[in-house]
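Fold this sequence, please.
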Amino acid sequence: MTSLAATEATRDRALALDLRPATPAVSEEARRAVSASVARNIDNLVDLWFTLGRSGPLYEAATDDPEWVSAQREGYLRPLALLLSDALSGSALHRSLYLDMRPWHYQELRPADRPAAMAEHLPAEAAAVAALLDCDGAEAVLDDLHAPLLVPPDENVQRLLMIGDCIMPEIRVFLSGQERQVQSAHVQFHADFRGFRPEAVAAQIQQMRPSLIGLSLFSHNATPVYSALRNDAPKLGRRKLRERVAVCVDQLGTAIAAIREVTDAPILVHTPAGVSLSRRDQYLPTAPGLKRMIREVETQVEELVEASENVLLLRESEVAERVGGRKAAGRRLLAPEYRDAWVHPMRIGPALADEYADVLASLDLVQSAKALFVDFDNTLWDGVMAEGPVVHNREGQKLLKELRRAGVLLIGLSKNDPANIRWDEMELEPDDFVLQKISWRPKPDAAAEAIAELDLAAKAFLVLDDNPAERALIAENVPGVRAIDPTDPFAWRTLRRWLASPSTKATPEALKRTEMYREAAERRRAMGTGTDYATMLSTLELSASVREATDADMDRLLELVQRTSQFNTTTRRRSRAELTELIESEEHKVIVTGLRDRFGDLGVVGVVIADYSDPTTADVDSFVMSCRAMGFGLEFLLLNHLTAEHPDRRWTASFLRTDRNGPASDLFGAAGFECIEGDPSADVQRWALEPGAPRPERPSWFLND
């Protein structure tokens, strides 16, 4: 969104969205009748909810503290009753807010467990409220309204963890007005709390495995140090202001580091806009000190973001400008009777939700992507190079070069004569491309050929092409490949955000990935001429190394255990801290294996975590192998090495089936293990290799270590 009009249009879409089922279970007349009855019984409904306690919507367990009673009544239950009335009158905004507030006291439960918990209480509450209202059909109307709360979350949707103060719930509400479905959770911080609590965040991360983390320690009053800074900013000199901001940004750095201990999910970090929660402050001139503070926070946070992995920046001040400035951004969307409500959505909310939707759309495109098909004419430059001079998109080419260095595979896909490409004019070089499919062949044929040569799934590929017909032909004829339009700024935002995704890291492996996949393509072409399997593989001059992992292997270990889904026996996604603990454990071994052949070094391609805590048994906790090492029998060499080292132990192993790890499903059976729990087709299997049983055979085509 680039203008106030565009943002207003998006806001209107969000507020006008009808969230009801296509075929309503109850009539509009019945809903409006119940709405009117609720409006007449606001105080009685609040009293009823108090008697129901946490079997109703009460946010916390009841106490006799007058301040607590007043806060619950005026801040939560009365506004909830008003929202209920307005929601039933037909307002999608109020309905969305009501449905967002209802599960608040179930936040400690896993999202998957909340619907069942609510299903246990909501029917009885609906019956009690219907009896209070004494309105025909009230129970059916309430059941219809609450129906979305009882639907278990789709495990395949994107998962958003929001960390910060009250700006986060309103982003979540307006995000629900987007077409994109998102499962979200919120870790609340405000000035009354004692700063960032890593244990609370870690618990939520372990529970939901987020696709994206929103982190806002500078919106409104998220932390005590920022709240104090905001109050003092107008009277601080420049040096003291920098020092105070540095303290806040250090706290942000600590928060990012704590998150990184448990996940590599992208983090979207907010900088402040200075939007105030106070109605009085919204009409006061913005103090110069506040503006200086915002600029200083933005500068220091930007430096932190640039120095951090998988971190993106969201400037709230820029978003506020798009809705008319700080004062306009802070204007409330609810009527004055909601003035004491804990929920206070403002005009900035829909615009921030737009930003989140845009980032989530980018991450959805790149989360499983490993390679990018790149058109040339009118994509990397304006014009047709064969017809004369062109205007190069140098920033775009530099971005693609950054992606290549971060491990993304670039494939040139251009209808052209290779002789027409003037490489000396470009930021990119021929070696930046793992393959060049430059010819007059149909692009879907060339794309399918490249996918086969690189031996990756089609969904691992994006295509960047200015021609809508070519994009459609590839998407329709090579299912799984997704296309982005370089004439749309969203495409370049997405490619920039790819650098902040877990799939792109500046590791030695990533720097060599283009070369390794180019070698792999040559290897497959060479193998295609073999006569029998063993003879064919012998021509590759395969050599493997097996050793215990060290801290120096950590980045590659994280890549393997967090990204590998196909040859992965359990798909357990471990954090850096967990892997460090296993490496240092005396009862475990983390074994890595490397692979090389006559075409080059594939690097570390496999990891096995073995548990030796039982003196008579060894357990294969996890067996993970990169897809580029599949098909060479390396898994049997590794199992041979492990089991031969401890011939007196009974070896056990688990296989947990997913929809993607089929290539690992017959590993233990093919290696001579016996299935002792479940069966080879079951989703959960246990395997064992007894001490006297033959060890897995080492493939003959590997050279001696």
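The first strand starts at residue 158 and ends at 164. Residues 1-151 form one domain.
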